[in-house]
Amino acid sequence: MAVRVLTPQAEDFPRWYQDVVAKADLAENGPVRGTMVIKPWGYAIWELLQAELDRRIKAAGAKNAYFPLFIPESFLHKEAQHVEGFSPELAVVTHGGGEKLAEPVVVRPTSETVINHSFAKWVQSHRDLPMLINQWANVVRWELRPRLFLRTSEFLWQEGHTCHATREEAQEYALRILSDVYVDTMQKVLGVPILVGRKPDDEKFAGADATYTCEGVMVDGKALQMGTSHELGQNFAKAFDITFQSAAGGAAEHVWQTSWGVSTRLIGALIMCHGDDAGLRLPPRLAPAQAVVLVVRDEGDVSGTARDLVGRLTAAGVRVELDDKVATSFGRRATDWELKGVPVRVEVGPRDLAEGLVTVKRRVGRVVEQVQLANVVDAVTVALELAEQDLVTEATLRRVQATTEASTLDEAIEAASSGVARVPWDVVRGRPLSGGVTVRCLQRSDGSVPTAGDEPDLVAFLARAY
Predict the structure, then answer these.
(1) What is d(CA 164, CA 28) in angstroms, rounded to the nearest whole number?
(2) Of 341, 340, 384, 336, which Cα lies nearest the Cα of 360?
(3) Does CATH place domain 284-390 in 3.40.50.970?
(4) Domain map of the chain by residue range?
(5) Which helix (H) or strand (E) holds 175?
(6) How does pLDDT run across 11-62, given as a tens digit for each residue?
(7) pLDDT tens digit string along 102-126?
(8) Whole-Å CA distances, 50 to 146, 261, 286
């Protein structure tokens, strides 16, 4: 009887997810409840994703900076909705150096307050605007129901914070980040098709005027909020007195602001959108190793040929690893690489090599082909391109199949219990939902993002969510 490596998705999807995180060697629980240790394979994925995001953030004009981990508790009380929204999740330090602190400090749950403290000093004139700042950091939100990557008490993220002269400029920039940074990365790099829209007002970020969201649909039909961009209006500007002298030289005016962020939750999305019963399936751009060359048995010139293939693939720009650990069975090693989601395996064994061949296996689709040694680089390059295309095609088709058009609230709730319901917003607005179903986002009927929550003829997307 074959040993079952993972719990099948159809049997228990949450257990399958936990199995993949553990057996693909991505992360493990830390010693404090709700924390996580990101292991080298998982962190390498995060580094590649971080680089893709960082490049796009800089192309949008933002510059990286760093702000303190500890925030005076009084800062959070300057914006009433903000502190109310975060109070249940705060970690507060009351003692330091063996003594009680004169004022407790909060371990940052997000950095609007501490960054705006600096903005109040940095912004004086219209010449200082727009001010576009991004931070890569960790944050702490005391999570009651932790799940690795999806909800942890400490996680890694980027958070952008900006100041603008007008509301229109702030709104334009918040939407630019949403499309040019987040949606572009999620769809082109992660291969996850995204529902983009506006959050209903009762679900917007604490202290924001409007929240725009990116929602992915996972294998089990549930939605996952993958990133958000917020219009903060002048709420924090007034609380922290961030003003500028206009070009006209009149009275000092408060700036208009945005904030936006994505986190290591994106790795959870990667797992749940692309994984299968054999483990993780990585898009090539996020694979720490895009190909692995496996020595089947170390006979004759097998190891030498494998090392030569690694050199050729590396020279062609492929991230590749050599697996010549023949003391471990070939089947066990092949299974481990499948679990980790490496897009392509090149298997070098004495029988194939005697005929001048190697075996190339694609993780997506399980396609197997015999390839001449001289053609391996071309075959791997094509396999990587096809892997990227196939993941996007599969995920897009799955989202289409999971989405149901509904015309009544009862129809929408039923459809959203196992997938996504698209329903007129007027049918849902102000009415209670059940069964864990929530409104994930609002769109215009043409699929574009509304800039106001009371626009006519809006469409709501409903689903259960992580």
Answers:
(1) 41
(2) 384
(3) no
(4) 13-274, 284-390, 402-463
(5) helix 167-176
(6) 999 999 999 999 999 999 999 999 999 999 999 999 999 999 999 999 999 9
(7) 999 999 999 999 999 999 999 999 9
(8) 23, 12, 10
